[in-house]
């Protein structure tokens, strides 16, 4: 631990240089500890191991609260171990106690300096200039080097959606864990757009007139209604598609293993729970129960 270039002891005399100045280049985790503290003896080795593993993604500064009580007092440390995270000279996060390694990784990944960040920025610049193909290529390489760089994964998925590559975008988005520290609203929106593109690619530019004629001739042709509903949703005629799915469910909730209700729920997922159409058709489903 003592030989690591990413781990060092901190005193009031070197705090400015070792913590505040370093934090302008990489996050600095300041671990307040003491020899008598058993949880400290669990936490510090894990942090030191991760500091070496992340190779400068963050730095670990150790403050012995018995030897440096003034630092602990200045930062209002009330229990140990306590870790305060500095970026750009400011405390941006903190936690107390010996957290499991998985939890530590989540916190570190939220703040860490990424080695591939300059390449991500280059890709975003190329995208702004209209060169999406080059941007996609760079972001794919970024993720090869740092598969858990989920912000870059969102960027890549967004560009793939813009290129109409729904299946590729969905694959990227599904690689992001549900508990990842990313913009969850953006993730859900991109996933919905990717699924819409996939659906549209599956159905293509199909002429719906034959299906509409079948339904006009036989309003109980549920198979035709299901197929037309899928086409309507794929072509952004969402409300018409939902209405057809609902008609199938209302006529025969068991038809094709509940395909009407399944179609409704699949479309709800595309729209997101807050969409007015989702609320309306959930209410219609609910009203069927009474």
Give the helix/strand layout.
Layout: E1 7-9, H1 15-21, E2 28-33, H2 38-54, E3 59-64, H3 69-74, E4 82-87, E5 90-96, H4 101-111, H5 117-128, H6 132-145, H7 150-162, H8 166-174, H9 184-203, H10 209-217, H11 222-234, H12 238-251, H13 259-271, H14 276-288
Parallel strand pairs: 1-3, 2-3
Antiparallel strand pairs: 2-4, 4-5
Description:
It is a single chain. The chain is α/β, with parallel strands linked by helices. The chain has helices at residues 15-21, 38-54, 69-74, 101-111, 117-128, 132-145, 150-162, 166-174, 184-203, 209-217, 222-234, 238-251, 259-271, 276-288, and strands spanning 7-9, 28-33, 59-64, 82-87, 90-96. The chain is elongated. Strands 1-3-2-4-5 form a five-stranded mixed beta sheet, with helices on both faces. It has 14 helices and five strands. The chain starts with 6 loop residues before the first strand and ends with a helix. The chain is 59% helix and 10% strand.
Defining traits:
290 residues, alpha/beta, five-stranded mixed sheet, 5 strands, 59% helix
Alpha plus pi helix count: 14
Distance between the termini: 67 Å
How large is the share of residues in beta strands? 5-15%
* Percent helix: 55-70%
Return the average pLDDT rounded to an integer: 91
The SSE string, one letter per element, is EHEHEHEEHHHHHHHHHHH
The computed structural class is alpha/beta
Please state the CA-atom Rg, rounded to the nearest Å. Answer: 27 Å
Low-confidence stretches: none
Strand ordering within the main sheet: 1-3-2-4-5
Global shape? elongated
Count the strands? 5
Largest sheet: 5 strands, mixed
